[in-house]
Structures are given as C-alpha cells and as structure tokens.
Amino acid sequence: MKPLTPRFPTVDRNGFVPAPESIPPPDVKYRQKVPPGLPVHKHPLNPLAFLLRGALIYPDHIAIAHPDVKHPAYYTYSVWAQRVQNLAYALIHFGIKPRDTVAVLAPNAPMIADAYQAIPAARGVICPINTRLTPLEIAYILEHSRAKLILVDYEYVHLVKDTKIPAILSNDTGRAGDPYEEFLSQGRRFSRERGWWGLEPEPDEDAGFALCYTSGTTGRPKGVLTTLRGTYLGAVANAYETKMDINSVYLWVLPMFHAGGWTYPWAATFAVSAQITLRNVSYPLIWNHLRNSSVTHYCGAPTVQIGLVNYPETEKLLKPVTAIIAGSAPTAHLIASLEKIGINPVHTYGPFTRNHLQESWLALPLEERAKHMARQGYSYTTADGVRVVYQTEDEDLQDVPQDGKTIGEIVVRGNLVMREYFTDEKATEKAFKGGYFRSGDLAVMYPDGSVGIQDRSKDIIISGGENASSLAIEQELVTHPDVLEVAVVARGHPKWGERPMAFVTLHPSKTAKWENKHKEFEIDLKAHARKRLPGFATPEWVAVVPGLPKTSTGKIQKVELRKRVAKL
Amino acid sequence: MKPLTPRFPTVDRNGFVPAPESIPPPDVKYRQKVPPGLPVHKHPLNPLAFLLRGALIYPDHIAIAHPDVKHPAYYTYSVWAQRVQNLAYALIHFGIKPRDTVAVLAPNAPMIADAYQAIPAARGVICPINTRLTPLEIAYILEHSRAKLILVDYEYVHLVKDTKIPAILSNDTGRAGDPYEEFLSQGRRFSRERGWWGLEPEPDEDAGFALCYTSGTTGRPKGVLTTLRGTYLGAVANAYETKMDINSVYLWVLPMFHAGGWTYPWAATFAVSAQITLRNVSYPLIWNHLRNSSVTHYCGAPTVQIGLVNYPETEKLLKPVTAIIAGSAPTAHLIASLEKIGINPVHTYGPFTRNHLQESWLALPLEERAKHMARQGYSYTTADGVRVVYQTEDEDLQDVPQDGKTIGEIVVRGNLVMREYFTDEKATEKAFKGGYFRSGDLAVMYPDGSVGIQDRSKDIIISGGENASSLAIEQELVTHPDVLEVAVVARGHPKWGERPMAFVTLHPSKTAKWENKHKEFEIDLKAHARKRLPGFATPEWVAVVPGLPKTSTGKIQKVELRKRVAKL
C-alpha cells in the first residue's frame, strides 16, 4: 500500500513547534451545533465541514507547510483546525457579526489559509484582496466591501497605511510576539474552550461566503459574492476532477487571493491534502518543490505555466503532476510543452467547464491532441450545462449552431455561479440578463457539444468583413519555435477596416539570434502564419517587445496594447 | 496515457445492434428546461444530470453491458440516454404523474438500470422490490407504496400474477417483440422528438426519489423514502471515496433493487463508468469478469464476499479491484482474505460512514490491520457527523465516552439520511426521535473518534452480568481455519443468565475432515476461542450446520437461530 503521509524531504520540521495555543485540547470534538429548525435529513452545505472532518480523521497529517521563509511553519490538520478555531473566536471577540466582511491582504502564507476557513467559521464574509493593486484601488475595495477588519501581511502594510479600518498585522513568523499569533491566542482565551460547539453554525447554505473583486480592466472592480453551497459543490467537483486525495500535495503557485483560490482552499480540505504555501511565484522554488516535495497538484494561469516551462533548469518529472490551468485560455503549444515535461494539464474555464480527454485523441500527434485539449470542453460535474448563445439584446437566448464556427457568448447558470455583484443590483441584473450569467467570453460550440473560447467580444478582429479571432491567431503564432508569448489586437487598416497586429516576446535563448533583425523575424513569423491561417487572419504587423503588459493576476492587458496601437 | 474505454474481451458485441428507437437523433440535446422561479446561481441537485452529462461528453463509451444471458445487450451512453428518455416518455404516456410510484421487480439487467434513471426523469418515485420476497410481501409493498405500474422481469412474473396493478413485462432480450422494448418504442413515438427539453425537470431537490422497503425482520416492511438531494450527494461521495471514473468498470454483484443499489446506479453515471449487469450472484461469472472484463469496482454484503473468497478457482488478481462492503459488518478475517487475492475492501456503513486507512496501520500484520479496517470508521464526505449515544428515552442525546468500550446507539443526521418512512408518520417520528436517525445499531466510539459497531441491541449477550457482543465473538471464531461462516446468539443458562451459542458452517474443503466428529470440532473451536476471548464470551455451545438462515438480502437471520435455540 502507498504511504498515506506525503513527505517533505527538503524541509526540516524539527525546528518548529506550534505555540501552545495552537494545540487542541485532548478531548477536542469536531462537531458544531445543529442549526435549529432543520429536518433530520438536511444539513446546510458548508465547506467548513471538510476541515473538521480532516482534523477528525487524519489529525496528524500535514495540512499547511510554509517552508521557504525565514520562519518556516508546519501545521498538522488538528493543529491547523485549532488555529482556525482560534481565529474564528478572535474575530467574534473583535466584534465580527454574521455577514460582516473581513478583508485579507496577504500573499500565500498560513494567515490567508487560516482566514479562508475561519472567517466563514465566524459567519463572516472573506474578502481577499489582490496584493498587486494600488493603495487607491485597495481603498475602494475596502470601502465598497464594507470591511470591518483587515488581516494584513507585513509586506503589504504600506498599501493600507491610510485606512481607518482596524488591521491585524502578520509578520509571518508563526512565533510568539507576532501580532497575528497574539490575535489567535486572544481568540483561544476568549473561547474558554467552548471549542467548535461554541461557534454558531451558519444555517443558510445560500449565505454569502467569499467576496472577490474583479480586476476591473474596464471601470471599477466589482465584488463577486459566492455562497456556501456554490463553494461546497465547486470544491467537491475540483477535488474529484483533479483526483486530489489524502496522498496529494497541493502547491500554492496561484495567489490564494485570486478568485477564491479557484476553490482550492476547500478542495484541498475536502481531499484532506497537504498544502504548501509559497509567498511569491518563484520558479526556482516551484521547481524545487516539483522535484523534491511530492507535489501532485498546482494551479496557474497560462502566463505562469509558460514561465515554468521555460525555466532554464526544467527537467522531465519522474512522477506526473497535475496542473490546473484557468484564468485565460492556454495555447495548444503550451499544453504540449507541459506534457513533455511530465505535467498533465487539466484545462478548466472558471468553475464552469473543463476539457475532457477523448479516446479518439490518443492516436493523434501531441500538437494535434493539444489543440483539442485547448478547448474549454464541457460543463463541470456539479455545474449546470453551459451554452453558447447569440448576443441578443432581448431575454430569449438562442443557441448558436454546433458547427465549430459560429461565434456566440458563453452563458452559464446553476450552483457554481456567483450569487450577485455585491451591493450592485444594476450590474447583477445586467450580468444575469436572460436568466444566465453572461460571461462576455466569445466561443463556438463544436459538433460534439464542447465549447471553445474564441475571444472576448472586443478581441474579435473584423478584417475585410471576416471575423478573425485574436486567440486563434495567437494559438498559431506561438507555435513558432522562437516565440515565448504573443498577443494579437486589431489595428485600423484603410482597405480592410481592421487587420491583426501581433506583439511578440522572444524566447530568452533566441533573443540574441534576432537582435537588430526584427524585420527579418517579422518576415519569418508571417511566413509561418501564412501556412497555418487564412489570409485575413495573418498578422499585417509584428512588433517584437521585451515584455507584454499584464494585469495583477497575470492576464495580458490587451487594453494597454490597444492604446499603443491607437498611437501608431 | 491510459485508454479511456474499458474493453470486454470475453464478449462479442458484434452480434448486437440496438433497436432504431434506441438511437438518438443526430441533433440530440442533453438539456432540460430551467425550472421557473430559480435564481441564476441555483439549480436543484438531481442525479439525472449525471447521465445527461455522460452522454454529452462520452456518447460512445459503454454505459451498460449485459453479457451473460441468451440475448446479450450493450448500450453506449448516448444510446442508453435515449432509452432512458424513451422510458420516461412511455411512463408519462401511460399516465404517470409527478410523485407517482412506479415499482420494479427485476434482477440486475438493463430494465432496472433504465428505471433508476427514467422514473425520476418522469418525476415519478422508483420503488425497486426485492425479488426474493413472497407474493404476499410483494402485494403488501405494492399496495403500501401506491404503485401505479410495475416493470417486471419474466423470471418474477409469477410473484405478481394476482395483482391488479398494470405491469410491463421484460423478457430481457433487448430485441423487437419484447414487450418492454415495445413500451420504450411507444415512448419514443409519444415524445415526437421533443427530447430532454420536453421532459419537465423536477424543481424541488427535496422531492422523493427512491422508495426502498426494509426487509422487515420485525413487523411489516417500511418504505424508506430518499430525496434527489440526498441521492445526488451520496452518489458523488461514493464515486469520490471509491475513486470511480471514466476508466472504471462497475460489476453489478449487489442486487440493484437493494437499498437503491447503495447509490451506485448514480455514482456510476456521475463517474461515467461502465456497468456490467449480472442477473444472479454466480461466482463463476463474477470471477470470469474479475479476470477478463477490466472490472474495477463492485459492491457486496459480507456473505457474498465470503462466497467469492472461498470459490474454488480463486486466484490473485493482477489488477487490484475495489470491493465496497456494507449491509452488515465484515469480519477482520474476511477483510484480510480479500486483500490476499488483490481485492481492496472499502468498508462502509450505509451511506453514513466509511473506514479510512491510517498510516500507523501500515506497519501492522495483515490480521491486525484488518481488525482496524473492520471498524465502521468516520462519517462520509458529504454526510453530517455520526454520533454514538446513550439509549436515553428523552430527546437529549448523550454521547458515550470515546473509550472503545462503552456501548451506545449510532445516530446520524444530515443530507444522506432518508426523508421519511413513506406515509408512516409514527414510525418516522420514532426513528427521528431526538433530531437524529436512530439506527438501532450498537457501537462504541474509539479514542480516535471512529465508530465500531458491536451489535444490534438484541445481539448483545448478557452473560454473568457482562455484555458480550456476538459480533466480537464471531470476529474471533471465524479466524479458525476450518470455519466458513458463523453466527452467535444468546441462549439461556441456569447459572449465567445467558451464554453464547455458535452456529457454524464449515469450509467446503474441511467438511470431510470433521464428518461425524462435530464434538471434536466443538472442542477444537472452543480451545481456539479461549485463546482470544474472555471466558464470558467463549461459546458454551457449538452447532455445526450445513447452512445459515439468511434474509433475501443475504443477512444472517438471527431471529431464526433464536427460534431454534428457544426449542433446545
């Protein structure tokens, strides 16, 4: 039989002993009261149950490992559950009431992992804030979310120095003297050992749970409010789809603040997996863990995956690792590159769809198969069906034909959809027009009923009356062996109306090859494109750039590129 | 990469072509209407969604294989979904209205597999009836369940020949001319190709779904009514816990009529697994499939597992198979025997608890580890917690100490519990006294918070003031190398009040050894017992019998044994 506890051979846990307040009492009970008025055959779906169950069944299994810092920390499930309980009591002691928002401004570290469990345990709503935002943007979110308290990591204190909202500071030491640790200890004292039984359970599974703000490429960020029920079902589906279990080690490459950590804070507790927290996206550290820490799963947007694949000391992994890719559509080229080094991509689109391997693909060459794998696929196990509809203004949504060509908008509904844009009825109404969440993403539906994103509506290039998908063009351009990343936008053209313009970064090892020869590279890339794309989709212009502008979550900012184009 | 479609090398599918009415139209859509009045972020949990999703994503994957009959049949997911749709329309055409009960009296075969999906698709309630009951018992269930229609297999027609309820007969041929096939064709015609869209979805996830009658060892059988929500969450948990997926082949050893097939009719569709239906528990057929049909999973009560392990042509399986054991508690000896031949037992208790392997057990000898694995363990992933409480008469349930000794009653609540005993408020109220479902099973709670069943209350033997668990005694007696099965009951004793009496069947290969030497065997077994049990638990009497009386679901009927003992 396989060993049940993953090992962390590169880390020395001997030096670390959790504070006495983090140790559960000998008679700890992982049970909460039954909310009154429920029939015997019902309990509200609440992801907190996963942590309690994990701590009950596998108390000594590693839950959180935080190795790559000055003060490493390692928490077993039972110790972690106690710390979560302490934080929940501390929040209540502070004055947090049901439905109150508590903000978190922190990198991947124990504090934010605690917060994802403890704020809901105190019946609050967690609002994790992107650490790459400006102080002004953060101030807006704090105000809009009505945050009553901020949990803030020492590295980001400067971003909230002007706020009047009370803050708890973490120095990320896990040691006595750390204000965050002191806050936890206060919680433990305040609990008077009432334990989980003393924390009132949330009776309504439809209650708000996490409040994550959009990055707001256009206009003000909006607060996406998800529910307990939606998170529960999303986390279960993710654990199932990616085969996470007690033997899994989940590496936090994705910032945990990003869109509720794609539900993986709870998918990991559902599966009773170990989580390794990394403060920053550091390729040497990531590769170290992939090689030496029994990592089995990680999430990352395509841009992070590209960095990982192109890291100079890449090697083929002996034990396959599952990489969950979402955030934006990966190119077929990226998928193929990951597979070559032993990383199995699971390509998902939000919590709504995933790509499902088909037997008929197995005989295909890797590049061909990767094209199929780059499609967004089918609806998630616990999601309702996904549709691709015409962009009608009225409420009657019309499905596009399943021809793999006709472009429509992806719309979704059901348990994995957000409940609302927080306190923004108008925006919610608009997003839900027609009884579906309007994603704004443009896609086709293939004859097999699977979905393939083409572009967001503004990313379609109308060239001589033809609709060219900038994503489809990018998919082909990136297969050029010297290209690292590429972004295509529309640029005005006197004859064709619009024509594609490609912004390209070169592979580090190929930069010297094309130095002062950008014109020659342009000719080479266009020749490459003409073999693979129709004329109207071949880029008219190619600009080699040192880097592409990206949002704080790693998405390429086409808005910026369009601004540049406008000035040409 | 692994092949995605399991192979059935022992069967020749060439001969079988589904009827034209079973072939979906080219533009088939696997989508139902959205029930009115729902917010965008909610859809009712309904296990029917699993089949529709399976048919959409893997239309050509084998869903149902029915090989070991005169007329074998093989249905892919798309064909099966069409047949389910046809049956749903046929039921509506017949006059089935929402909440109407439709009974099924059939062995494992395509019809009952269809019924588990189609009756809920028509918004009816499925009532699968145990084929081993008497005509009188069946008549009672048909009347009590208010069945409007019976789907009946040719082998069991004689059991319902006096009923006035209309019946649809299946000759289990899957061919034209079979009344069941004609019923499906009627459904297809009646549908006028309205497809899934034309079948009204069930708006209430709390609606009754399956109505399964208890075997009624004491008194009349009771109708256990489960809900859509409960079944959905139970099926997802089972698929997750047993790691069923697209590569899995589930062998129907357990009768599908038994307690909703332990939710595996839907766990299999959730996982898009293949199902092989076996009309009867035939060890040669089971072993043939274990060896040759890529079987990965099956369910069975301990008695079936014992038969399987003791089949003469047993061999160690090359690819491990997962056996889900429930129905009654397996002995440690059985668990160890299964592991020796490459069968990994997953021991569950109803849909409430399962045994979870612990790392600390791995170093133990197999027999020792199996003892741990024979415990009922911890609450299921999607269940609420399980408790062991004192048998108080008032509503205030008191947990027993976690000492592994104090016996109490297992009580459970939450989403995996039945909604009610159908039309029996009094029995429901009694079963739910104290806000929990009172299982009637006696257990201890160990210091690690796991549960171990001792006995049903009447199986405790009070010997000289000591409580002896008949199950614990059986666990030890069955380790005697010549014993096949054993059942222990209390027998009156002038001095001690009660003493254990053991009824034993011998292993087939050992029957000759002890022929006309039952007294010697008794001495041998008692000596074996004394080494392992306290004096008060050592059996005072041993009876070697040719077979043990069993219920129609394979449970040993201690009631019968007690009757025998009363006459001694």
From TrEMBL, chains A, B:
Keywords: Ligase. The keyword Ligase applies. It comes from the Eukaryota. This is AMP-dependent synthetase and ligase.
